[in-house]
Design goal:
The complex is a heterodimer of chains A (530) and B (217). Helix content of chain A is 64%, strand content 12%. Chain A has 530 residues and is α+β, with helices and mostly antiparallel strands. In chain A, strands 1, 3, 4, 5, 6, 7, 8, 9, 10, 12 and 13 form an eleven-stranded mixed β-sheet that branches. A two-stranded antiparallel sheet of chain A has the order 2-11. The radius of gyration of chain A is 33 Å and the shape is elongated. About 27% of the residues of chain A have low confidence. Chain B is of the alpha/beta class and 217 residues long. In chain B, helix 3 runs parallel beside helix 5 and helix 5 packs parallel to helix 6. The chains are: A alpha+beta (530), B alpha/beta (217). At the A-B interface, helix 1, helix 17 and helix 20 of A face helix 1, helix 2 and helix 3 of B.
């Protein structure tokens, strides 16, 4: 205790030096703690949200994007897939659970997921009030959604196009809250769940309006095709039946489709554009594959049935966009015949979903199933564990770089403490010699200097840990506001204790050389020189 | 050996390199006595004092304090023995700048591994006339006030032997006489023996006995 008090008193002699050393150590510690808390919670959240999901089927594209969109709801989906294409995999004996899901709308930034009740079971959700959805346009909301959007049983709300806040609202059809889920700590908390049928019906109903808005968006954004599309737009508006214009319309589809899709993708990345563009982008999410089918259908028409194609084009002018795509797809499948029957196309053949979450029955499925799915050429299979591991490796480079920088700050603090102690030794040699005369042993002088170094380290580390947690909590509030993952500074993780122990070791190391100097103080010589 | 003998030195030799610095055949001091060790600069007075304090190890001979042969103690045991049985005052005082006057005095008790005796501290502060300065830091003291604090620190844990190195060298005549009489009186009051090594001729006749040292050629 004597040495602690003496060391503490001694630190007050040079308050500025002590303060700088403490702040340097605090800065380094806070940086490391912040990184530790963030990366740990990121890993835990990712692991929790992907628990029970072995494979995700979705549209071809980036596998990471598919996982981020379908599992973590942190990105837009790469596209939609025909429900029919997923059925063979859902019924595969190697699959234990298959949960389809359809995205496209959101409410106040919370995503609306059309799915089955299995989705709730997959994430361990429990209904705390009400019940799961039974009919179309019934919704069950996660705990965070209920709280943030102030929703209770019986509340109604209109979903908005797009996966972020600010899209065009489906004012004509509203969801009714029939159930609220208890907090799960996973992605379920921030989702609005409904039936697949709700999502399909809502988009069928709103298809006409959006088809028009879609056209306008094309006119605005595709300057290089403005003329062609303008003509196409006039066809729709004035119900012209000119054969040439029909051909133009088809040329448009054939020649500009790839370009259109590129631009659609670009729009997907910037969903905060004007309403029309946003809506258009959201429709594209659902309709990418429909476009492909559409294209194939038209190819069929051009090859063998040009008149049918013309007729079809005229029908386009009267029907909504969704119907249009349905018809084209059917034409492709049936060699371009039976128009009238396809006007009422069924979900079975053309219905799309965004993704299907799969759980294996057997671990052996991991070896074969993804390859088989990908070989089909229509769907993409992505394993969350693998993709997230890949993503974390990429993110890990940044985290490691930041961590290295934080440790540089700690090393700077350690050097500063060393310099302060070592520099003070010269002026304190007489004091140390006097302590030996008063009865202090050499080991006690060693302890004295180490305690002094440790006190600065301790103050810096404690301050740093507190600042790190405070910063994490503030970051968590900010992240929560942006509807991302849940982060908090109000937790302690085991690695922090290791960190604190490690930093104390750094403190000891920074003081050890001055302490050894003090230990070796030649009292008689020092007193003579003094 | 008499039980009253606090300090007993025999055949003490110390060399530094090839040069012999100290060569003392007999030196003894009884309990409560004071002795001045006087000699010119460079005659080895301070080295002799350091040998008595156990800060240096002699090349030959023995030093017994309270019957304890210093060379038989380990380094850490010697440190503790010094802290418990000796008090030291130097020309430079080496007060701890971060501590108050009271804390500086109490530090000697703590280093001697005895309980802090607040009454003993108060008594010394009063005897030395520095009771009003107890909360001041050393930098706020005059040289005379600081020297009194150093004397109090050397005596507060009731050592058997007080060793003083040139306590008056930097002081004018009046202050030198005051310092010496204060040191002698305080040591007597505390029941401690006192050895003062100095080249200051003003010390002559002020202590119970004197020991002359001459430079070894």
């Amino acid at each position: 205790m004597t040495w602690l008090r003496l060391a503490l008193a001694n630190l007050t002699l040079s308050p500025l030096t002590t303060l700088v050393n403490v702040l340097l150590m605090a800065l380094g510690t806070a940086s490391i703690v912040l990184l530790l808390l963030a990366s740990t919670q990121l890993r835990e959240t990712m692991s929790r949200d992907a628990k029970g999901i072995d494979l995700v089927l979705g549209a071809q594209g980036s596998p990471v994007q598919l996982i981020l969109s379908a599992v973590y709801h942190a990105d837009i989906p790469p596209g939609n897939i025909p429900l029919s294409e997923t059925e063979q995999w859902a019924e595969d004996p190697r699959i234990g659970l298959a949960v389809p899901m359809s995205l496209g709308d959101s409410y106040l930034g919370f995503r609306i997921v059309g799915t089955t009740h299995d989705y709730v079971d997959l994430y361990g959700g429990e209904v705390i009030a009400g019940q799961l959805w039974g009919e179309s346009m019934q919704a069950v909301v996660g705990a965070n959604v209920a709280q943030a959007a102030n929703l209770s049983l019986g509340s109604t709300f209109a979903g908005a196009h797009g996966l972020v806040d600010g899209g065009h609202e489906h004012d004509d059809q509203t969801y009714r809250v029939v159930g609220i889920l208890e907090p799960t700590g996973n992605v379920l908390d921030r989702l609005v769940l409904t039936s697949l049928e709700s999502v399909w019906e809502l988009h069928d109903e709103s298809g006409h309006d959006h088809a028009h808005e879609d056209d306008h968006a094309h006119e605005d954004e595709h300057d290089d095709h403005a003329h062609e599309e303008d003509e196409h737009g006039h066809e729709d508006e004035h119900e012209s039946h000119a054969h040439e214009e029909d051909e133009h319309a088809h040329e448009d589809e054939h020649e500009g489709h790839a370009h259109e899709e590129d631009e659609h993708a670009h729009e997907d990345e910037h969903e905060d554009h004007a309403h029309e563009a946003d809506e258009h982008a959201q429709e594209d999410e659902h309709e990418d594959h429909a476009h492909e089918a559409d294209e194939h259908a038209h190819e069929d028409e051009h090859e063998g049935h040009p008149h049918e194609a013309d007729e079809h084009a005229h029908e386009d002018e009267h029907d909504d966009h969704a119907d249009e795509e349905g018809e084209h797809a059917h034409e492709g499948e049936h060699d371009g015949h039976a128009h009238e029957e396809e006007d009422h196309g069924t979900h079975d053949a053309n219905t799309e979903i965004t993704a299907m979450l799969l759980s294996y029955n057997t671990p052996l499925a991991a070896m074969t199933l993804p390859r088989e799915v990908n070989a089909g050429g229509v769907l993409q299979a992505a394993a969350p564990a693998m993709e997230i591991s890949r993503l974390l490796q990429l993110v890990g480079v940044g985290i490691s770089a930041l961590g290295a920088f934080a440790w540089v700050l700690v090393a700077t603090a350690a050097l500063s403490i060393f310099a302060a102690l070592y520099g003070s030794l010269r002026s304190r040699r007489g004091e140390l010699a006097m302590l030996r005369c008063l009865g202090a042993t050499r080991a006690e002088l060693l302890t004295y200097l180490i305690v002094e170094g440790l006190l600065m380290t301790f103050a810096g580390v404690i301050l740093g840990v507190l600042v790190g947690h405070l910063a994490m909590e503030l970051l968590g509030i900010w992240v929560a506001d942006t509807r991302g993952m849940t982060l908090t500074g109000l937790i302690w993780i085991a690695d922090e204790f290791l960190l604190v122990a490690g930093l104390f070791l750094v403190g000891v190391l920074s003081a050890i050389v001055p302490a050894i100097q003090a230990y070796n103080t030649d009292v008689a010589t020092t007193l003579l020189e003094a | 050996m008499s039980e009253e003998l606090v300090l007993n030195v025999s055949d003490l030799k110390f060399t530094y390199g090839d040069k012999q610095i100290v060569d003392i055949s007999e030196f003894a001091l009884k309990s409560g006595q004071s002795m001045a060790v006087i000699g010119p600069s460079g005659c080895g007075k301070t080295t002799f004092l350091h040998l008595l304090a156990g800060l240096l190890s002699p090349g030959a001979g023995t030093i017994q304090i309270l019957g304890q042969e210093l060379s038989q103690l380990s380094l850490s045991a010697l440190d503790r023995f010094r802290g418990q049985n000796m008090g030291m005052v130097f020309q430079r005082l080496f007060l701890m700048p971060a501590l108050t006057v009271r804390q500086n005095i109490e530090l000697a008790q703590k280093m001697a591994r005895v309980d802090v005796d607040v009454q003993a501290v108060d008594r010394l502060l009063t005897e030395l006339g520095i009771q009003d300065l107890s909360d001041r830091k050393p930098k706020m003291l005059s040289q005379g006030q600081a020297q009194r604090v150093a004397i109090a620190r050397a005596l507060v844990h009731r050592p058997a032997l007080v060793l003083a190195d040139e306590p008056t060298s930097a002081l004018d005549n009046d202050r030198a006489e005051d310092a010496l009489s204060l040191l002698k009186h305080s040591a007597e009051t505390a029941g401690a023996s006192l050895v003062v090594v100095t080249h200051d001729e003003r010390v002559r006749g002020k202590l119970d006995s004197e020991f002359e040292m001459e430079a070894i050629v």
